[in-house]
């Protein structure tokens, strides 16, 4: 069975080679580079087996993108610490949403209203909206890209209707079909990025409940998530344009 490889990073400025990839299951590192083919060079390699290959990579590739630890210990934070990040970020807060539904949404009275009426109503007194409105009016940017299936799940349709409320307080809400997200190589992870230096990785269980929140500050890992953000923003469309696509498909 083919490995599930995740792009880790490259120092190349032009063609993307050399680079590192990580095996998602085993954690092994796959090194991509120019092969060593000169017999005189190969003869100098110790313990070089007949079925092995050697590649050339610059030292900085391993320094900048190689793992810092044999096994990373997650830094988990509580909900209050996570919520404070939305009050203390300085410039930008951005999220990628990839799941087909969230348990917290299904427990929301607004979701029950949507099931009954097909629409939702903005509550301007909701703490989230009060804070985000204050942050965006202060010149900060808040946004997210949501991945949707074809056809969208009920939970995704609920969030699509709710997106206009997020937009009303200054959030930049965009959408991307899952097939397009897969082609763009976006990770199947939910996360927030704060000021391009802190990643809050949201880990869910199989029932879509938020299991824990992991903060990531290792520069190479933060850059990986920022690369995903840039790709998502490049391919995504505004929520109202996406809503028109969904309506047309119906």
Structure description:
The protein has 250 residues and is α+β, with helices and mostly antiparallel strands. Helix content is 38%, strand content 25%. The chain has 10 helices and 13 strands. The chain has helices spanning 39-42, 59-65, 79-88, 103-106, 109-117, 127-137, 154-168, 178-183, 219-235, 239-249, and strands at residues 5-9, 19-23, 29-32, 34-35, 55-56, 75-77, 92-97, 141-148, 172-177, 190-194, 198-204, 210-216, 237-238. The strands form 3 sheets. An 8-stranded mixed sheet has the order 6-12-11-10-7-8-9-13, sandwiched between helices. Strands 1-2-3 form a 3-stranded antiparallel sheet. It is elongated, with a radius of gyration of 22 Å.
Topology:
Elements: E1 5-9, E2 19-23, E3 29-32, E4 34-35, H1 39-42, E5 55-56, H2 59-65, E6 75-77, H3 79-88, E7 92-97, H4 103-106, H5 109-117, H6 127-137, E8 141-148, H7 154-168, E9 172-177, H8 178-183, E10 190-194, E11 198-204, E12 210-216, H9 219-235, E13 237-238, H10 239-249
Parallel strand pairs: 7-8, 8-9
Antiparallel strand pairs: 1-2, 2-3, 4-5, 6-12, 7-10, 9-13, 10-11, 11-12
